[in-house]
C-alpha cells in the first residue's frame, strides 16, 4: 500500500532562464512552504544540473529537468542528462529524444488563455495531438490560469490582492482533452506552477515584490506523490522514487491556496487487495472505489469523462460496473452554490 505522501511543485523557472530567483532561493522558498520536492524546468537548458544544483537543499529534493520548444508544444522533460534540441514543428522528435536518454516528460500546458499583459496575449498551446510516447500532461498550470484572469492591469492587481475572486479552475479544454486521451491509453496528470517570480516593480512601478513569489506558488497547485514507505535519505534513491511515482501516476493534483489538499486518498478496494491511482484493476474482483478527503467537498466520480456519482462529504465510495478509467475530482463549496476546483486524482484503470 502507498502510505506516504510527498508534495512537489513542478515546472519552475530559475535565473538560468527567465525566472527571478536562483535554485538555492527556490529550494529555500519550497522549504518554508513545507513541501518536499521541486522540479526546475528552465527553457532549453540543463545548466542547473550541470552546475551541480540538483540534490537536497533545505530538506527539499531539487530535481532539474528542462522545458523544450519555443512558440508552441512546450514539453517538460525529466531525468535527462543532456539538452534536447527544440523541434517546435515536430514535437514527436523531442519526445523520442527524451525517451532515448532514459527520460520522461509531460505536455506543459495543453491550452492557455493568453493575457495582453504577457507576451502580447500569446497562448502557448500544444498543437500536435498525434504524438505518442509521453508520460502525461499538466492539467492545471497555475501560471496559465493566472494569465487568463489578468486581462488588464487593474484586473491583474485586483485579483492579485483578491485571489479568492479569481477563477483558478483548470481549463475545461484541458480536462476534456485529458478525458479524451484516457480513452486510448494511460495518461498521467500532474499539476504545475510554471512560476517565474515575475517582478512586479518592473511591470508597474506601483508595488514591489514578485508576482507570485516562489513560496506562494509552492502553496498553490502542487503534485502530491504517494510512496510505499518513506522517501529515501540518499538523493539518487529519492529522485528515483519520485520519478517512479510520477511515471506510474501514483499521484494527485491539488491547489492548497484555500484548503490544504494533503491527506486526500483515492483507491480501489477489491477482495484481493488495494489498487492505487495509476494502476490496473479488474472488475472481476468486485472493487469498490474509495475517496477520503481532508475537508468537506463535492466529490465527483468520473468514468470515461462522465460524472457517475457526486456527493458533498468528507468521504465517498462507488461500486463500478463497467470497464475504463475512473478518476475523482473534489470541488470546495463556496457561497451561493458556487464551487472551487481543489483536487484531481489520477485514474484507476479497470478492465
Ligand atoms: Zn511553457
Ligand atoms: Zn514554463
Mean pLDDT: 94
Query: What global shape is seen?
Result: globular
Written as H for each helix and E for each strand, in order along the chain, the element string is EHEHEEEHEEHHHEEHEHEHEEEEEEEEE
Low-confidence stretches: none
Largest sheet: 7 strands, mixed, barrel
Number of domains: 2
Secondary-structure-based class equals alpha+beta
CATH topology of the largest domain: TIM Barrel
What do we call the CATH homologous superfamily of the largest domain?
Metal-dependent hydrolases
Q: What is the CATH class name of the largest domain?
A: Alpha Beta
- Which radius of gyration do the C-alpha atoms yield? 19 Å
Classify the beta-strand content into a percent band. Answer: 25-35%
Tally of strands: 20
Ligand identities: zinc ion
Calculate the terminal CA-CA distance, rounded to whole Å.
21 Å
What is the topology, as strand order, of the major beta sheet? 1-2-4-5-6-7-8
Q: What is the share of helical residues?
A: 10-25%
| CATH architecture grouping of the largest domain | Alpha-Beta Barrel
Alpha plus pi helix count? 9
Task: Describe what you observe in this structure.
The chain is of the alpha+beta class and about 350 residues long. The protein is about 20% helix and about 35% strand. The chain has 2 domains: about 250 residues, Alpha-Beta Barrel (TIM Barrel); about 90 residues, Immunoglobulin-like (Sandwich). The protein is built from 9 helices and 20 strands. Strands 1-2-4-5-6-7-8 form a 7-stranded mixed barrel, surrounded by 5 helices. Strands 9-10 form a two-stranded antiparallel sheet. It is globular and about 50 Å long. The model has no long low-confidence stretch (mean pLDDT about 95). One zinc ion (ZN) binds next to loops. The site of one zinc ion has 5 residues, from loops. InterPro entries: PHP_dom (IPR004013), PHP_domain (IPR052018), Pol/His_phosphatase_N (IPR003141), Pol/histidinol_Pase-like (IPR016195). GO terms for molecular function: 5'-3' DNA exonuclease activity; 5'-3' RNA exonuclease activity.
Amino acid at each position: 500500500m502507498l502510505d506516504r505522501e510527498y508534495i512537489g511543485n513542478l515546472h519552475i523557472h530559475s535565473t538560468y532562464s527567465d525566472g527571478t530567483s536562483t535554485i538555492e532561493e527556490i529550494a529555500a522558498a519550497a522549504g518554508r512552504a513545507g513541501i518536499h520536492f521541486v522540479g526546475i524546468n528552465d527553457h532549453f537548458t540543463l545548466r542547473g544540473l550541470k552546475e551541480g544544483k540538483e540534490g537536497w537543499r533545505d530538506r527539499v529534493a531539487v530535481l532539474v529537468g528542462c522545458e523544450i520548444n519555443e512558440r508552441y508544444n512546450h514539453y517538460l522533460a525529466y531525468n535527462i542528462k543532456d539538452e534536447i534540441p527544440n523541434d517546435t514543428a515536430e514535437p514527436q522528435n523531442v519526445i523520442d529524444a527524451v525517451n532515448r536518454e532514459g527520460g520522461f516528460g509531460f505536455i506543459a500546458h495543453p491550452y492557455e488563455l493568453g493575457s495582453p499583459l504577457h507576451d502580447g496575449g500569446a497562448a502557448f498551446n500544444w498543437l500536435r495531438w498525434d504524438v505518442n510516447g509521453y508520460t502525461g500532461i499538466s492539467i492545471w498550470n497555475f501560471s496559465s490560469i493566472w494569465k487568463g484572469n489578468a486581462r488588464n492591469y487593474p484586473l491583474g492587481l485586483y485579483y492579485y490582492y483578491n485571489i479568492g475572486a479569481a477563477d483558478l479552475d483548470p481549463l475545461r479544454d484541458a480536462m476534456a482533452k485529458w478525458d479524451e486521451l484516457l480513452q486510448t491509453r494511460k495518461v498521467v496528470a500532474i499539476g504545475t506552477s510554471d512560476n517565474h517570480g515575475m517582478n512586479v516593480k518592473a511591470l508597474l512601478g506601483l508595488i514591489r515584490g514578485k508576482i507570485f513569489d516562489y513560496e506562494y506558488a509552492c502553496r498553490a497547485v502542487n503534485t502530491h506523490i504517494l510512496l510505499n514507505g518513506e522517501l529515501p535519505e540518499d538523493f539518487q534513491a529519492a529522485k528515483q522514487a519520485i520519478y517512479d511515482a510520477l511515471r506510474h501516476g501514483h499521484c494527485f493534483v491539488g491547489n492548497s491556496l484555500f484548503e490544504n489538499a494533503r491527506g486526500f486518498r483515492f483507491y480501489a478496494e477489491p477482495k484481493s487487495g488495494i489498487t492505487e491511482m495509476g494502476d490496473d484493476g479488474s472488475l472481476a474482483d468486485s472493487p469498490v472505489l474509495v475517496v477520503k478527503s481532508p475537508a468537506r467537498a463535492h466529490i465527483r466520480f468520473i468514468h470515461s469523462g462522465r460524472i457517475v456519482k457526486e456527493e458533498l462529504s468528507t468521504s465517498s465510495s462507488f461500486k463500478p460496473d463497467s470497464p475504463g478509467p475512473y478518476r475523482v475530482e473534489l470541488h470546495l463549496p463556496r457561497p451561493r452554490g458556487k464551487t472551487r476546483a481543489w483536487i484531481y486524482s489520477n485514474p484507476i484503470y479497470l478492465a
